[in-house]
Amino acid sequence: MVLPMLEPVAIDLPDAAATVRLAQRLAPALAGGGVVYLEGDLGSGKTTFARALLRALGASERVKSPTYSLVERYELPALTVWHLDLYRIADPGELEWLGLDALDAPASLTLIEWPQRGAGALPPLDLRIELRHAGYGRTARLSAAESAQSLRSFLTNTLQKSDS
Ligand SMILES: Nc1ncnc2c1ncn2[C@@H]1O[C@H](COP(=O)(O)OP(=O)(O)OP(=O)(O)O)[C@@H](O)[C@H]1O
Ligand SMILES: [Mg+2]
Prior knowledge:
This protein has 164 residues and is of the alpha/beta class. It contains three helices and seven strands. The chain has helices at 16-30, 46-56, 149-159; strands at 9-13, 34-40, 71-76, 79-85, 108-113, 127-134, 137-144. Helix 1 crosses helix 2. The protein binds adenosine-5'-triphosphate and magnesium ion (MG). Adenosine-5'-triphosphate binds at residues 13, 15-16, 18-19, 40, 42-48, 85, 113, 136-138.
C-alpha cells in the first residue's frame, strides 16, 4: 500500500554514537507504539538504531540482531516491541507463520530491518528511516506517514530544528 508521506528530514550521523543519539531522541515519540521500517544497506546501522531505541525505552536484556531468529520480542512495562530482520526472507509468503497481525496491535512497536523483503505482507509503516553509508559515517532520512500525526510533528518541529 502506498501511503502519503512527508518530505523526509535528513540527519548526518558521523559515527555510531550519533545513531544511538538519534534513537534516544526518537524514543519518546515511539513510546506509544507504531511501525518503523529500517531501510539501508548491510552495515548501515539498522540494528545499532534498534538496539539503542530498545535501551532508551527501558529494555534491560541483551538486544541481539534477529538476523537468524527473524524476530525477537521484548515485553516492556507499557509496550511490546517486535524487532524483525527480514534479510534472509526470499519471498514475503514465508512470513505467514510469524503472525503478522500482532505487529500492529495497540501498544506495540515494530521495528523492521529489510522491510523490502516482506513487501505486501507487512503492516503499513508509521515511520521510515533510510540509512546510508557516507564516508566513515552514515546519513539518515526520516519520513512519517501522513496518518502518523504525532510523529510528523515530532520530525518537523523537534528533530529538524535541533542539532543531532
Ligand atoms: N552513524 C554511524 N557511523 C559509523 N558507523 C556506524 C554508524 N552507525 C552504526 N555504525 C556501525 O556500523 C556497523 C554495522 O551496524 P549494524 O549492525 O547496526 O548495521 P545493520 O544495518 O543492522 O546491518 P545488517 O544489514 O547486516 O543487519 C557497526 O559496527 C556499527 O557500530
Ligand atoms: Mg542488522
